What does this fold into?
Amino acid sequence: MGIRGPSVTVTLVALLVASFLASIAIGAYAIPVWDVVGVLSDRIGLGVGGTYDQIDEAVIWDVRLPRAVLAALVGASLGIAGAALQAIFRNPLADPSLIGVTGGAAVGATFAIVTGFTYFGLLSVPVAAALAGLVATLAVYAFARRAGRTEVVTLILTGLAVNAVATAAVGMATYVASPEELQDIVFWTLGSLGGASWETVRACLPFVILGIVVIPLFGRTLDLMVLGEREAGHLGVRTEQVRLVLIVVCAVTAGAGVAVAGIIGFVGLIVPHIIRLLVGPGNRLVVPLSAVGGATLLLLADLAARTVAAPAELPLGVLTAALGGPFFLFLVHRTRGAHGGWG
Amino acid sequence: MTGSTTRRGVPVHAALLGLLLAGALLVAGVFAGQASAKPERAPVMPTTGQGLDGDRVKIRSARRIVSLNGDLTEVIYALGLGSRVVGADTSTTFPRAAAKKQNIGYQRRLSAEGILSLKPTVIIGSTLAGPKRVLEQLDKSGVPLVVLPEDDTIKAPANKIRNVARVLGVRKRGEILARKMERQLRVQSRNAARLAKGKDRPRVAFLYLRGPRVQLIGGRASRSNTVIRYARGVDVGATVTNRSSVPVTAEALIAAQPEVLVVTDTGLRSVGGMAGLLRIPGIAQTPAGRDRRVLAYDDQLVLGLGPRLPSAIRKLTLGLYRGNRV
It folds into this structure.
């Protein structure tokens, strides 16, 4: 499938750019495309100008643009972390929730909501979520590690246990919450980019960039690790170190995404599969393209979330699952018809 | 004053003129006073209001109003400005026409662009509205955003009416409505006292229901507590918690021994009506569940602390002391 790599890459990147532009141009508030161009060019100093007013400018520059950027960042972080984790664990069901990131983040967010934690201002809930996500991941890793080694199955089972505890903690927080806090928690767990601002973009940008830069460097190593732990070791891969580094990077990257957007299912799990169906299993291509695909998917899903029921919004996490599930089923079905699937 | 001149020698005609002028001013003043008691025929703009973080914002037009909270929507309608509402949040349940307005989502999960797409000339919300970031985005757009303080006391309805009326340029309409409301409140409070005289006060619990698994009991700081106290009921929720509400277990509910349960219409619907409510563990074992003394009201009626507070108190009083069903 190496021949298809370049054309698929070009197509996916073009699709990402198109989705990004569409996200800026389309929304509940009708603004002519010319004014969209006018606002953007004036803001970056090109000064094409236009007949837009203050509301047009605020909608484009303070609402849509940060939201589109954040959708791309969160989607990319979930997609790339999912691809890396599926390779590390040699498990097609692996995604950021498996290593405790999502569960931990949910605990952090709900407790921040219930206790009224506001030390970091508007970023208090995201910061609490990101930290708790990282702590949960490290806990999973520490429990699964024994005599300097980590078994994949133990790691997955530990992840399950930590997630169960996290679910209990979220349930506990829900139990003591007031009706308003309860609504906040429910909405957080449904996922949304409604609170996107330049501040949230700045908060999660460095972590997402870290993941997007570091994880693809391990593309070849991941290909070797897919062969099996022992085989990779024989080929000179220091599997334990690689795994630790990648798990922490994935936790930080996906944690930053989950922290600002809430729980958005499906993207981290399914996007790598879709990419693999398109370009084959090579991780040197699958990993970076999963970032591109994740960003595109979340941009389109969020575009739908904020326009379908306008002026209200649909929950983003619900939408990604509702749209992505059937599409994925279709892909799986087609692949099985063509190559016999995964056996 | 002696002779034809004043002590300072001002000529008589001048003094007379002065007197006449003063009289005219007085008469004009009286008429002006009467005129000021007349409600505005249309909003008198511009006005100012309290914006986000206490800034003052100038409101130039009340032609297109977006209301972020159900209780405020009700106030806007009571002020006769309902036709100007172009969007309201999901918690808007009354009047029925208001609930049919363009829905902007739940008051704590608003969308800036969705609200702006309705081209409002003014956005009114309380501090309950959110998330904060969306309010900031709205504020930045230049459309005047007014954020009124939250208030859970008996004074809340009158305060809301006066605040909203001032912002929307119908101060006098607001004053008339607020006074009428305060008068009705006193009347209903007296009526309740009369009905309750010499009788045992029924033990009442307000239950916030959201599906068969979420039951919160209204506590001492709740809005329902205000209504129950004024209807001369004993709010057992206040002995359960000092907060506005807590989840209540079957046993705690039985221990509280409520003789009457007060719920909201949407809450009752979420558990599948009366039959569903009685299936929730603990409910059937309370005196209220045994006697099926459950009173269901419109959400904003019991929880809104809006202009219908006197009516809420009257309905609950009759429900408690006359056995009226809603």
About this structure: Chain A has a mean pLDDT of 86.
